[in-house]
Amino acid sequence: MNEDNFALASKIVSRSYVQQASEIRKQHENLIRQLLEQKRLPDDGWDESTIELLVNDMALMDSNNYPGNCGVGEREARIFSALVAKRHYRFGHGIGRSGDISAIQPKAAGSSLLNKLTNSLALDVLRLAGAQSTASCFVVPIATGMSLALCMSTFAQKKSKRPKYVIWTRIDQKACFKAIILAGFEPVVIENKLEGDELRTDVDAIEDRIKEIGADDICCVMTTTSCFCPRVPDRLEEVAMLCAQYEVPHLVNNAYGVQSTKCMHLLQQAGRVGRVDAYVQSTDKNFLVPVGGAVIAGFNQETIEDIGKAYPGRASATPSLDLFITLLTLGRNGYKKTSSGKKRHVYLP
């Protein structure tokens, strides 16, 4: 309902009642306007009616939802089942184009807007969580392991010759190890050192292997923040300085790390003193959404854009939509409350 329609409605229903409804509508629209202007998390979470108002309006911006539309091209977002269309709020075009997962789609202004806004909200929350210098990020409809493989493949394309190895500080979790193999590289496993009751990064061993193999034959060094005891987060700052010194890309597996201010602080410091090309986090582990997405982020915008351009084809918008709705529901204050609650629950005196 716009102002003209409210004016017409006031000829049917009492003007005072319609005026009241119009004012409430303006409250919803003011929240949406602020989001479009600021492209950041709202301070307070939105109610479902405001979120659905925006999501439905964006869906109507896609060509498959135009009245009387009869698309005859190959990308027309045809959906047979009404239940499937409803489940996806009638978004059917996905996000990105064949050359760039962040590109605008001519037939899908609404899906493109959803993509851009979600990436902006994700960037805001990463900065809020502690990595203030993060320059860019984007949501991908693949989980952490596949996202790590995408990053490694992109790094390899920047080398003068195809590198063979990935130096990897050991963590007993299959996804990151399999990601190295899938991307076509040979893992060089760096065992951790026992220091007291903790397993810590052997920085000297990493440097020795870089010297032994040669920087040109190394795709990247992959480190890890979030992990399970007795292993502790890698010494990101020291590794980042090594990578900067030897000009080797540095990829950080931050799968669970956004919910830990300690992990995010380590990333921030590493990016400040050395080299962190990209860091990857799972959407479900950090943002309370279904499995199936990740956020690829970094401190250099050009590097993150290159990774986005390496993604083959368009992508599902489902993880972006899930994250968009969830972050708007939480808002800045809700996210802070959730984070502080986790701290209280895990604190051991």
Task: List the defining traits of the structure above.
about 350 residues; alpha/beta; two-stranded antiparallel sheet; 13 helices; 9 strands; about 10% strand; elongated
| Helix and strand element order | HHHHHEHEHEEEHEHEHEHEHH
Mean pLDDT across every amino acid position: 92
Helix content: 40-55%
Counting DSSP H or I runs of 4 or more residues, the number of helices is 13
Q: If you compute it from the alpha carbons, what radius of gyration comes out, rounded to the nearest whole angstrom?
A: 23 Å
Low-confidence stretches: none
- Overall shape: it is elongated
The overall strand count is 9
For the biggest sheet, the summary is:
7 strands, mixed
Which strand order does the major sheet show? 1-9-8-7-6-2-3
User: Helix/strand/pairing class, anyone?
Assistant: alpha/beta
Sheet-strand content, in percent, reads 5-15%
Structural overview:
It is a single chain. This protein is α/β, with parallel strands linked by helices and 349 residues long. Helices cover 49% and strands 12% of the residues. The chain contains 13 helices and nine strands. The strands form two sheets. Strands 1-9-8-7-6-2-3 form a seven-stranded mixed beta sheet, with helices on both faces. Strand 6 (218-224), helix 9 and strand 7 form a beta-alpha-beta unit. Helix 2 (15-38) crosses helix 3 (48-59), helix 6 packs parallel to helix 7 (174-182) and helix 8 runs parallel beside helix 9 (236-246). The longest helix is centred in the last third of the chain and has 29 residues, at 318-346. The chain is elongated. The chain starts with a helix and ends with a helix. The model has no long low-confidence stretch (mean pLDDT 92).
